[in-house]
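note to self: dont lose this again. the chain is below, predicted strucutre after it. 127 aa total, dont forget to put it in the shared folder this time
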Amino acid sequence: MPLLLLGTFSFCELIAGQIVIQSTEVLVRKEGESVTLNCSYSTGYPSLMWYVQDIRKYLIFILHDQSKPEDIGLKFRQRFSGVVKRTQRSFQLSISNLEVDDSAMYYCLLKHPVTHMPYVRVQEVKD
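---
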């Protein structure tokens, strides 16, 4: 049975007085096992999200702290879940029935306040 390496990035982000802390860990699990990753925040009611960095170094959105099962992408819906513990100021990501492809770096990020959302419209060029 293959071993899986799961990493969490040591990360501290400060935005508008909010601090998000994710400890440095390299977790080794066996295929089929489960794992829970933890993310802590300092104060208030932030909007938190979990991402995974794929082999091409792209960050892929998994879920946010208010995700409903139907909001989670098909790739993650069956085995990934998030739990917010407001009294402990933590946001956990749980992955069940681990697969070798789950070996990756996982990031907990704080959503930045959006003041401007750019929109790009591409028009078809006709000859």
